[in-house]
Write a structure and sequence with these properties.
The complex is a heterodimer of chains A (about 260) and B (about 220).
Chain A (H helix, E strand, L loop, with lengths): L1 H90 L7 H28 L2 H6 L1 H12 L6 E5 L12 H19 L3 E9 L2 E8 L6 H8 L5 H13 L2 E7 L2 E9 L2
Parallel strand pairs in A: 1-2
Antiparallel strand pairs in A: 2-3, 3-5, 4-5
Chain B lengths: L1 H9 L1 H15 L7 H22 L12 H21 L6 H22 L10 H24 L9 H29 L1 H29 L3
The chains are: A alpha+beta (about 260), B mainly alpha (about 220).
Chain lengths: ~260, ~220
């Protein structure tokens, strides 16, 4: 009787211990394999993201190179030809009494000068020489003053002077983002007042663009970004990814705001 | 001190269930966890009846002072609700087997209590029923892990169903041999059998803590 009881007790203890050991072993194998798989997936995801960023970077850089090339062509080739044409045009002598020819001559001269100015403007817009020479703050200020027109749109600019004037590798992308947003605000939001402000703190440049037009909210921006015709917004998003920046849209009582936060290396 | 500890352990089958239930009151659980939600509510009432019957057995009429049939009932309900839970997880692994097992268990229960054992046995709970239930639930938990090992891993390994399945796995692992040998122990070593039930109660507390963790995790998903 006693021997039988001891056997049952032994069987019980050994049985529970064996079952627990088996179960815990399986649980540990499960957790270990899941962790390994998760780590592998995260690494794969990181590699895919890095590859995607490289592609975006290549696309953005090649776009900039192409813009630069077209700007140089326009400035050096077309601009030089138009400049020479203007010189030749100015050398032409029209007799005083011939009033009809005088007026045609004047009209042609005006159109040629306008063409030269347009080509120069286009060339500067494609390749911001101001950015290259004077830095981001000056380029943004200059761009805004060009767009601003008292009777149509008023753009106020307050930029942090502590931001370095020496051009950084990301400045062109920041400039393009601001350029695209201001274009969009004037074209789509129908704003009459725009305020551009920047703060440079702890190696982070924070640019805020506020306006009184019909702007975008965060969900609206995300929706538009995936539409076929939203090329400008896609470009902005690509540059944001490239800069590892943050972009936020919000709506307040005073109007709409776009906050761009860019880490500066 | 020991008496207080014993009292806490004796009532653990009731108060331990209040841990996951308190989380249920804070937030509604997803549809996939509904069988577990039903289980904790039903188990609370059955276990309350079990413990009350045990504690006031001396003042109850003789024919009503056994709680063994409530353990049998609890075992059957627990098995079917957790089978439903595993089926509702929709894991594409042994799907037919998982659906056939409850039917087999039902046939087993009918045959066992028709020909071999008495469901309302005054002197003992059904060791056969509880141990078969435990081994089948253990099979369910093992197939869950095997499926997960071969499956694409999600962002969070430790999700709500993982905690519930692990809690159930620990509970049935510890209790399979206790259930299997319990009838024999009550005959040969009654005092040891009563003491051994503390181990069951502690594993039941662990089981409920894991269920509570599962309910808590479901809020994040």
């Amino acid at each position: 009787m006693n021997q039988g009881s001891n056997d049952i007790r032994l069987l019980l203890v050994v049985g529970i211990a064996a079952m627990l050991m088996l179960f815990i072993s399986l649980l540990l194998i499960f957790i270990f394999t899941q962790r390994k798989k998760l780590q592998y997936q995260n690494e794969l995801q990181a590699m895919q993201n890095a590859q995607k960023n490289q592609l975006i970077e290549a696309a953005v850089r090649s776009e900039e190179i192409e813009r630069h090339r077209i700007a140089e062509e326009l400035h050096d080739e077309v601009g030089a030809i138009l400049g020479a044409s203007s010189l030749h045009f100015n050398s032409v002598r029209i007799e005083e009494p011939d009033e009809s020819n005088q007026s045609l001559y004047q009209k042609g001269k005006d159109l040629l000068d306008e063409g030269i100015n347009k080509i120069r403007g286009l060339s500067h817009s494609l390749h911001s020489s101001i950015l290259q020479e004077f830095g981001l703050n000056e380029a943004i200020s200059h761009f805004c003053s060009k767009i601003s027109h008292e009777s149509i749109i008023e753009i106020s600019v307050t930029l942090d002077n502590s931001y370095p004037t020496q051009v950084g590798q990301n400045d062109i992308s920041i400039y393009r983002i601001v350029q695209e947003f201001i274009h969009n605000i004037t074209k789509h939001a129908k704003a009459t007042k725009i305020f551009v402000r920047s703060i440079y703190l702890n190696k982070t440049l924070m640019i805020t663009i506020t306006h009184n037009g019909k702007g975008l909210t965060q969900p609206h921006f995300e929706e538009l970004m995936f539409k076929k015709n939203g090329l400008g917004l896609k470009n902005i998003q690509n540059r944001i990814i490239l800069l590892k920046a943050d972009l936020k849209f919000s709506h307040h009582a005073g109007g709409y705001a776009i906050d761009i936060s860019v880490p500066i290396d | 001190m020991f008496k207080v500890f014993q009292l806490v352990i004796d009532w653990s089958e009731v108060w331990a269930l209040l841990i996951p239930i308190s989380l249920l009151l804070l937030k509604k659980q997803p549809a996939v966890l509904k069988p577990v939600v039903f289980y904790v509510w039903i188990a609370l009432f059955i276990n309350l009846a079990i413990d009350l019957t045990w504690k006031i057995r001396t003042i109850l009429p003789a024919e009503y002072n056994s709680n063994n049939y409530l353990y049998n009932l609890h075992s059957i309900i627990r098995f079917f609700l957790f089978s439903l839970f595993f089926i509702k997880l929709n894991q594409a692994f042994l799907t037919t087997v998982k659906k056939v097992i409850p039917v087999c268990f039902l046939v087993f229960v009918i045959i066992n209590f028709t020909f071999y054992e008495n469901f309302f046995d005054y002197w003992k709970l059904s060791s056969r029923l509880l141990s078969v239930e435990a081994i089948l639930l253990l099979f369910y938990t093992l197939q869950y892990y095997l499926f997960k090992i071969n499956d694409h891993v999600g962002v969070n390994i430790f999700n709500s169903d993982f905690w519930i399945v692990t809690g159930l796995g620990i509970y049935v692992t510890i209790n399979f041999f206790i259930f299997l040998l319990y009838n024999e122990l009550t005959i040969r070593m009654q005092h040891f059998a009563i003491t051994l039930w503390n181990a069951h109660n502690i594993s039941y507390i662990i089981f409920n803590l894991f269920i509570a963790k599962g309910f808590y995790e479901s809020r994040k998903q």
